Task: structure prediction
Amino acid sequence: NAVSHCEKVWKKESSNCAFCELIGEKVMEWLKQNKTEEEIVTEMETFCQWCPDKETCKKYIDEYGKEFIDFILEAENVHDLCTYLGLCSKDFLDIMKQSQVA
Result:
């Protein structure tokens, strides 16, 4: 189910990339269900309950959620979008790995 999947995703080194891709896939699914932008942003915020920093997650979704939806509409695939956002780049993943060690 989604909860256990999210919990596993956050334990991986590339969690931000995987989490971005998970949300992106869900956004695509919600768009196909003809959900409104407001409904999708609300749905995205529910993912924050599995984030280590719930408040920051919610802040980012409030600030960038609608832009993310717009990007999804234009993107060829979710991984490319998350890479473009810098969440799947090797440099980003290296920084995340180093911060977990510290």
The two ends are 32 Å apart (CA to CA). The helical segments are 2-11, 15-32, 37-46, 54-74, 78-84, 90-101.
